[in-house]
Amino acid sequence: NQIRYEQVLMKTSISKDVGADALRKYHLFLEEREQYPKGVKAVFAGFEKWLMNEKKFNTNGSAGSDSLPKNGMVI
To answer: Measured between alpha carbons, how far is 21 from 37 in angstroms, rounded to an integer?
Structure first.
């Protein structure tokens, strides 16, 4: 859902380029842990949380833009 995707990007103040990269990472994270299929609401809520964590993690200076977000899980 492109509209919902853009709403999440605007809500988290993330650019489309960064958002596309984060969506790829989020997708791989879910695939790796075999957490698909999820409902649409759960996927977007998880993606929004992923973006907020990535933004928070990257602005703390703890990691570069290629790093995964801190989410309390060992990856």
So the answer is: 21
What span, in angstroms and rounded, lies between the C-alpha atoms of 38 and 57?
Answer: 25
Rounded to 5 degrees, φ, ψ at 41 are -60, -40
Residue 1, CA distances (Å) to 16, 40, 62, 73 in order: 14, 9, 32, 28
**pLDDT tens profile 1-52:** 788 888 888 888 888 888 899 999 998 888 888 887 778 888 888 888 888 8
Give the pTM. Answer: 0.65
Q: What is the DSSP string of 11-44?
A: HHT--HHHHHHHHHHHHHHHHHTT-----HHHHH
Contact 38, 46 (CB under 8 A): yes
